[in-house]
Specification:
This protein is of the alpha/beta class and 178 residues long. It has 6 helices and 8 strands. β2, α2 and β3 form a beta-alpha-beta unit. It starts with a strand and ends with a strand.
């Protein structure tokens, strides 16, 4: 929804879940657990990828509070400037700061690592993926804030064949970019 501020709002999936899942399946590891945000736009894709995905509220997108579903142009410029100056600490009215979101994402990742799964698939939102990359790759905010994650892509965070040097890639069925 171009021009609208949304994060936690439960919107429909932008495409057909079955066709998106079919286009991604060849890029994904086989027989690994799928964890998903419980929002519809992730839930449908997760269910199309796996017979029993696990839904976890820690994978929800940022809660923009009173800004949700409002045009960005209609949000007070002073408030937007305060958020842009310190997104980690600034909390939109009735919403959540990026710092609070990062804490819940880090908690999820800590639990996931503790399960020693080897591999897992996360079906989640761009903001959550940025924070996963920040946590797993140890990136500075300037780097992870500028990362792009698009709908219908696979983003691989890999430990470079056991070297514990994590690498991040965005992949689609037709191309691969780092």
């Amino acid at each position: 929804m171009p021009g609208l501020c949304y994060g936690r709002s439960d919107l429909a999936l932008a495409g057909d879940a079955a066709s998106v899942a079919a286009s991604l399946r060849s890029l994904l590891p086989k027989n690994v657990p799928v964890f998903s945000s419980p929002l519809t736009r992730c839930c449908l894709l997760a269910e199309a990828l796996h017979p029993a995905p696990q839904f976890d509220a820690r994978l929800l997108e940022l809660d923009f509070g009173d800004w949700e579903m409002r045009p960005w142009a209609g949000i007070d410029r002073t408030e937007l400037d305060r958020w842009a100056a310190d997104p980690h600490m600034f909390t939109p009215p009735s919403g959540e700061s990026v710092g609070a979101m990062r804490s819940r994402v880090a908690d999820f990742l800590g639990n996931l690592v503790g399960q020693s799964l080897g591999s897992a698939i996360l079906v989640t939102h761009a903001g959550v993926m940025k924070l996963c990359a920040a946590e797993l790759l140890g990136l500075a905010p300037a780097k992870w804030l500028s990362m792009q994650f698009e709908f219908g892509t696979v983003s691989l965070i890999d430990d470079a064949k056991g070297t514990h040097e994590l690498i991040w890639h965005n992949r689609t069925a037709s191309r691969s970019t780092s």
